[in-house]
């Protein structure tokens, strides 16, 4: 008896709720305005993009603090103006001139001037920012002839191609009047004040970030949204559920797992975007510890490259949302990409032959040698590829033991203690090889630096080429040097690149202008709209 | 009453060495884990150069030896200062005070749910051991117990949030709702319904099984026979004679479960995106924030000690035999 009355009650309650839901008004009216709720999977420790140039920070902070220029699909040189409207490098590579936008105001009402750019460059980007320290290493002074011109002066030639390519990532401008006089800018707890389309309103730790519309934004008719909420959802499966239930309208950076995409793309009112990550390409790479005698042999490295079925990896692990890689520069960086390099097609027989040639025949059990394989734990795909690689190596007689660590332990084992033979890394191509790519193959980086050559690899030719490109000011010559570098790396395989991938954005079809630039998720969303 | 108070004092004094062991133990456990706070942070920002690595390590106070850092921590603890969190760049006491209530609500409600529903169903099952009702309840509760909590949580989300849309999928309250007082409490209760169910239903089986077994045993006791001989009704014997005696071990269980639920909340809080204590602990481990983790474990240990103390006191009040020896000794 009891059970029947219970089900009747729930039935009545259910139908009442259904009725009520039809009476509820739609969330947003009209063409613009409204609140966009976005899934966020982490809360960065320091949200200042001028200090921490990372995607986790940009995802939230890029709406508040703007760079000098943003990446663009159709802009000149792949850039669209933001706080700068024009830029030019001198032929000697010793200066770069930026014309700044006029009539821009900080969120607290103060005018934005070249003094802010000079302060950001000299006091923040160069000394404090993880990537700016490298790009602006030789920055000596910033002249401000007037309020809207900033001239960067370099002590040694700095290729303008590098500066230009790095602009979207390294040039987030902060207000001089906010940080001037702070003893330790990196430890500052001042709220974010920027010039962007949204103002930083509130952070409830563990719950959400709230950004609100900046009514004085310089972009005409922008921003379109009234409010953006970044809702902290640490569990990926739960993020998909929240999207389906309509509690959030957007999940970027593949926060909805690839395995859920097939199902969720069939849900009415939900769109899946694979565009919008072209300028933040992640690379699936096998890092090699060249201190191991077997791995110091180029034939063994070539055999490993032949043992990997890149098409299978793209198809099975990335479900097609990736491209096979030929080297350290991804295909969607056409300015630098060189496809004319030695290739290692999937060929188990050839891999076996190479290993025999190298002097590592199969022992009684069919095993040639054993090694430790450490997949990076940050992505499902890197862990899955670790499992695949173990099987692929077994097929050619190499017995790999997979060692799983959490993030901090992986960093210590691979990049500090070198307690690995092979590691799987998600490296990032950031628009120019000099920013975070050459460090993967050049020698001389001390232990403890993640995503750098910690495998003890040293090749004088490669080092010389990288150093030469670093001081070559001429864009054409510099590009040519990086094309040569790709050939050298593909020949000697200090690192084996397997696939290049971007992320997936899943959004309600109410959200308009999604994925309309190559760094969309980490751009300012001034033109993003919610339709009712 | 005097007996209970003396018991309380004895237990409080004996818990001090327990806490000290907990602090030193957790500090060194995290010390043994490879990688430190600087490693964890560097990875989260995608790398940096050697000078940056050095600067980070210095600013996080990771330069000295583990022993000197432990000493620093203990001396500040004596001044009731829990220290500074490296990963949040905030005082730890504030962080814990902010997160603790959410977890206490979650755990308290889940314990209440599993205890009341579990023991009530246990009475139903135990009033006639071996009956079809008993078998159904026993099997059903065991099946629930075997289910991992994150899976149950996700299933509840799919059914009640995504399909039926009765409850929200995640969070502790509606975002930026501006609600106050009773309306806010109702909102929080609405958000906690699914996580409490996910956590509580799993532990329900323990109480059910314990109650049932206790009752099944009690039926064979002489007093049950005596009650029956006096001509009392079956239901009256089951509830007032059998169940009452079988309830005592459940009180002990309550204290033990409170500790294991604190562990279970780590998972549930992640699935339901509740900014609680368990998730804070997970973030502290991932970020290798030793002072924060030690603070969390310390507060958890105090919680567990207090809950068990309350259980002991309740037990002493319920059963005059308990604690008599201990106090006399």
Automatic annotation (TrEMBL), chain A:
Supply the alphabetized keyword list. Signal
Name it.
ABC transporter substrate-binding protein
Q: Which residues form a coiled coil?
A: none
In Gene Ontology terms, what is one molecular function of this protein? peptide transmembrane transporter activity
What main location does UniProt list? periplasm
The compartments listed are: Periplasm
User: Which CDD domains would you find in this protein's record?
Assistant: PBP2_NikA_DppA_OppA_like_13
Q: Name one GO cellular component term.
A: ATP-binding cassette (ABC) transporter complex
Keyword Signal found: yes
Solute-binding protein family domain boundaries: 79-434
Q: So what family is this one in? A: Belongs to the bacterial solute-binding protein 5 family.
From TrEMBL, chain B:
Q: Does the keyword Cell membrane apply?
A: yes
Give the highest taxon in the source lineage: Bacteria
Q: How does it sit in the membrane?
A: Multi-pass membrane protein
InterPro entries (alphabetical): MetI-like, MetI-like_sf
Q: Where's it found, cell-wise?
A: Cell membrane
List the GO terms this entry assigns under cellular component, sorted alphabetically: plasma membrane
The region annotated as signal peptide is none
Q: Share an example GO biological-process annotation for this protein.
A: transmembrane transport
Q: Identify the residues that the record assigns to the ABC transmembrane type-1 domain, covering every copy.
A: 100-315
What sections of the protein cross the membrane? 12-30, 104-125, 145-167, 188-208, 254-278, 290-311
Instruction: Alphabetically list the UniProt keywords.
Output: Cell membrane, Membrane, Transmembrane, Transmembrane helix, Transport
Family note? Belongs to the binding-protein-dependent transport system permease family.
State what protein this is by name: ABC transporter permease
Q: Which organism is it from?
A: Aquamicrobium defluvii
Q: What is the lineage of its organism?
A: Bacteria, Pseudomonadati, Pseudomonadota, Alphaproteobacteria, Hyphomicrobiales
């Amino acid at each position: 008896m009891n059970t029947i009355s219970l089900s009747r009650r729930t039935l009545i309650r259910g139908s009442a709720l259904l009725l009520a839901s039809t009476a509820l008004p739609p969330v947003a009216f009209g063409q613009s305005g409204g609140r966009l709720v976005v899934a966020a999977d982490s809360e960065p420790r320091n949200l200042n993009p001028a200090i921490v140039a990372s995607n986790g920070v940009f995802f939230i902070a890029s709406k508040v603090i703007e760079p000098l220029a943003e990446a663009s699909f159709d802009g000149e040189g792949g850039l669209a103006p933001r706080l700068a409207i024009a830029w030019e490098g001198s032929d000697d590579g010793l200066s770069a001139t930026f014309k700044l936008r006029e009539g821009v105001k900080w969120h607290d009402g103060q005018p934005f001037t070249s003094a802010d750019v000079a302060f950001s460059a000299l006091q923040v980007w160069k000394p404090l920012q993880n990537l700016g320290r490298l790009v602006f290493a030789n920055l000596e002074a910033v002249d401000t002839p007037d309020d809207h011109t900033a001239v960067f002066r370099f002590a040694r030639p700095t290729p303008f191609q590098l500066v230009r390519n790095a602009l979207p990532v390294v040039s987030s401008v902060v207000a001089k009047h906010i940080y001037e006089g702070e003893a330790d800018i990196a430890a500052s707890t001042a709220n974010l004040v920027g010039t962007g389309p949204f103002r930083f309103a509130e952070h409830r730790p563990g719950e959400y970030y709230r950004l609100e519309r900046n009514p004085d934004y310089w972009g005409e008719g922008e921003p379109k949204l009234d409010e953006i909420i970044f809702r902290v959802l640490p569990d990926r499966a739960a993020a998909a559920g929240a999207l389906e239930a309509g509690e959030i309208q957007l999940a970027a950076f593949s926060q909805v797992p690839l395995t859920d995409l097939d199902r969720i793309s069939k849900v009415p009112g939900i769109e899946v975007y694979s565009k919008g990550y072209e300028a933040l390409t992640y690379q699936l790479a096998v890092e090699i510890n060249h201190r191991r005698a077997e791995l110091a042999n180029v034939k063994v490295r070539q055999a490993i490259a032949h043992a990997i079925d890149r098409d299978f990896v793209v198809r099975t692990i990335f479900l097609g949302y990736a491209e096979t890689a030929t080297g350290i520069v991804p295909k969607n960086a056409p300015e630098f990409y060189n496809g004319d390099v030695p290739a290692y097609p999937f060929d188990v027989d050839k891999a076996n032959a190479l290993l025999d040639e190298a002097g590592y025949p199969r022992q009684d059990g069919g095993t040639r040698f054993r090694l430790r394989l450490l997949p990076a734990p940050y992505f499902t795909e890197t862990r899955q590829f670790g499992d695949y690689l173990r099987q692929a190596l077994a097929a050619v007689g190499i017995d790999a033991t997979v060692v799983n660590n959490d993030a901090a332990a992986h960093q210590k084992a691979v990049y500090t203690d070198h307690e690995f033979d092979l590691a799987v890394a998600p490296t990032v191509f950031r628009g120019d090889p000099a920013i975070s790519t050459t460090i993967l193959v050049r020698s001389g980086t001390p232990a403890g630096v993640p995503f750098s050559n910690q495998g003890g690899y040293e090749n004088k030719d490669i080092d010389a080429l990288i150093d030469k490109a670093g001081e070559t000011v001429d864009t054409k010559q510099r590009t040519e040097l990086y094309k040569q570098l790709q050939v050298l790396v593909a020949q000697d395989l200090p690192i084996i690149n397997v696939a290049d991938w971007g992320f997936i954005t899943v959004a309600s079809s109410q959200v308009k202008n999604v994925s309309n630039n190559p760094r969309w998720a980490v751009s300012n969303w001034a033109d993003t709209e919610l339709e009712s | 009453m005097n007996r209970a108070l003396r018991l309380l004092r004895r237990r409080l004094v004996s818990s001090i060495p327990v806490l000290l062991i907990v602090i030193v133990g957790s500090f060194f456990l995290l010390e043994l884990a490879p990688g430190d706070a600087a490693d964890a942070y560097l990875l989260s920002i995608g790398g940096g150069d050697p000078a940056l690595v050095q600067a980070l390590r210095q600013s996080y106070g990771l330069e000295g030896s583990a022993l000197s850092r432990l000493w620093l921590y203990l001396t500040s603890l004596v001044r009731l200062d829990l220290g500074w969190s490296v990963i949040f760049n905030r005082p730890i006491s504030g962080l814990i005070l902010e997160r603790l209530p959410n977890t206490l609500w979650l755990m308290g409600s889940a314990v209440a749910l599993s205890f009341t529903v579990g023991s009530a169903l246990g009475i139903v099952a135990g009033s006639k051991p071996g009956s079809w009702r008993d078998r159904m309840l026993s099997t059903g509760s065991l099946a629930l117990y075997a289910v991992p909590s994150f899976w149950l949580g996700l299933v509840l989300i799919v059914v009640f949030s995504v399909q039926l849309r009765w409850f929200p999928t995640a969070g502790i309250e509606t975002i930026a709702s501006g609600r106050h007082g009773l309306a806010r409490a109702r909102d929080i209760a609405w958000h906690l319904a699914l996580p409490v169910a996910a956590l509580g239903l799993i532990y329900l089986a323990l109480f059910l099984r314990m109650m049932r077994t206790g009752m099944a045993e009690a039926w064979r006791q002489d007093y049950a026979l005596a009650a029956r001989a006096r001509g009392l009704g079956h239901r009256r014997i089951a509830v007032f004679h059998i169940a009452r005696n079988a309830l005592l071990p459940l009180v002990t269980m309550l204290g033990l479960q409170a500790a294991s639920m604190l562990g279970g909340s780590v998972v549930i809080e992640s699935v339901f995106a509740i900014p609680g204590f368990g998730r804070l602990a997970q973030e502290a481990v991932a970020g290798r924030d030793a002072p924060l983790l030690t603070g969390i474990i310390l507060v958890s240990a105090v919680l567990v000690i207090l809950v068990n103390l309350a259980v002991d006191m309740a037990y002493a009040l319920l059963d005059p035999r308990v604690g008599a020896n201990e106090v006399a000794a």
